[in-house]
Amino acid sequence: IAGIRETDEKFYYIVQEEKNYRESLTHCRIRGGMLAMPKDEVVNTLLADYVAKSGFFRVFIGVNDLEREGQYVFTDNSPLQNYSNWKEGEPSDPYGNEDCVEMLSSGRWNDTECHLTMYFVCEFVKKKG
């Protein structure tokens, strides 16, 4: 187990089971979390470090353009207006099939096909109290 990473508000957990994007979403939700949404550089760097130190190359994160092609949103439906970290030349989606997003161990994002299976990161809000 790669352990967990945490911020003041949330903790993050890499699930070491290969699942496609929708299965990843469901897995996190059933456990009371969401597919991880790196909404700022602090969280993105934390996740990239986590992925790299765990020895993985890529993981699904909670970003997609399934609803409207080219309009990427986080899994809570908030737009990517304040932060994104696309790899150079991405999102490319040459054939219109790359609607889901993976984070590479560099921390950069790449749009990829949703049916592919890989490890993924869930985020959980810490209980106040």
UniProtKB/TrEMBL annotation:
Alphabetic keyword roster: Calcium, Collagen, Disulfide bond, Glycoprotein, Lectin, Secreted, Signal
| Gene Ontology terms: biological process | ossification
Zinc-finger: present as a keyword of the record? Answer: no
Entry keyword annotation includes Phosphoprotein: no
Compartments it resides in = Secreted
Any one GO MF term held by the record is: carbohydrate binding
Residue ranges annotated for the C-type lectin domain, each copy included? 7-123
Gene Ontology cellular component terms for the protein in this record: collagen trimer; extracellular space
Q: Which domain of life is it from?
A: Eukaryota
Query: What is the recorded name of this protein?
Result: C-type lectin domain-containing protein
Q: Which organism is it from?
A: Neotoma lepida (Desert woodrat)
